[in-house]
């Protein structure tokens, strides 16, 4: 049976991770659930942990709706959890990594800063195809998030992960509306930034940061724009790549005559 690491950056008690783990279990896969003890949003692929005597602490848990699922709360961000999972920290290493369901969209080039995507990228960088899953609840969410709207597409994308021949990250975003109102799943390009923009006010002795919606700046065909139109979006991302277009030979010849 395929063993899957399910993690997130919202923390072990987030209802989003329970929904994701349930979707993976119901797909007939073995679930290993390991997530931060506390929220680790915006941690990207950080591997800085809360250590004592060089040890990263963890504790076994049992989630109410997932009593038979192997579960750990870890004093670390999700990327480090993913890294140590691939090294056998929780027993047999996983074959796939699923991260989420995040409370908030992860779109555009801003995914660089996402702990949800950072965990998936860490999985792929260590040879495991991965899926990052996010629900666009917006900056002022109202009511209970529609986690199942994301879970339905997770079930569709798991077979894709199992078929790929190279480690890759699929980045899934879903609008926060009932599942039967989602207009479908679309392949999307990454927006220039994301669903939100970050504004800065600089003054003597401080910098003030404000995150705001910028719906007017969304480019057609991108993940951010399609989410607003009511579509779920998926984008394939390479974890680490070398840029070959930059000519370094001339520089090396000057440095090493």
From TrEMBL:
Pfam families: SurE (PF01975). Residues 4-190 form the Survival protein SurE-like phosphatase/nucleotidase domain. Keywords: Cytoplasm, Hydrolase, Metal-binding, Nucleotide-binding. SUPFAM superfamilies: SurE-like. It comes from the Bacteria. It is an enzyme of class 3 (hydrolase). It catalyses: a ribonucleoside 5'-phosphate + H2O = a ribonucleoside + phosphate. One of its GO terms (molecular function) is nucleotide binding. Its EC number is 3.1.3.5. Belongs to the SurE nucleotidase family. This is 5'-nucleotidase. The gene is surE.
């Amino acid at each position: 049976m395929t063993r899957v690491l399910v993690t997130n950056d919202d923390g072990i008690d987030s209802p989003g991770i329970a929904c994701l783990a349930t979707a993976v279990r119901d797909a007939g896969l073995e679930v290993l659930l390991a997530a931060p003890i506390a929220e680790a949003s915006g941690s990207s692929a950080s591997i800085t942990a809360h250590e004592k005597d060089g040890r990263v602490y963890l504790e076994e848990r049992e989630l109410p709706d997932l009593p038979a699922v192997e579960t750990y709360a870890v004093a670390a961000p999700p990327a480090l959890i993913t890294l140590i999972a691939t090294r056998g920290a929780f027993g047999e290493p996983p074959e796939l990594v699923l991260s989420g369901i995040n409370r908030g969209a992860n779109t555009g080039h801003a995914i660089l800063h996402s702990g949800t995507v950072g965990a998936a990228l860490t999985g792929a960088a260590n040879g495991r195809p991965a899926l990052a899953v996010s629900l666009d609840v917006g900056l002022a969410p109202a009511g209970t998030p529609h986690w199942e709207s994301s879970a339905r597409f997770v079930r569709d994308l798991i077979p894709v992960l199992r078929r790929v021949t190279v480690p890759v990250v699929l980045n899934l975003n879903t609008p926060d509306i009932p599942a039967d109102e989602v207009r479908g799943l679309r392949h999307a390009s990454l927006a220039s930034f994301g669903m939100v923009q970050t504004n800065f006010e600089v003054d003597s002795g401080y910098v003030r940061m404000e995150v705001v919606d910028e719906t007017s700046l969304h480019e057609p065909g991108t993940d951010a724009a399609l989410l607003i139109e009511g579509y779920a979006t998926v984008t394939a991302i390479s974890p680490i790549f070398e840029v070959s277009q930059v000519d370094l030979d001339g520089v090396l010849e000057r440095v090493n005559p």
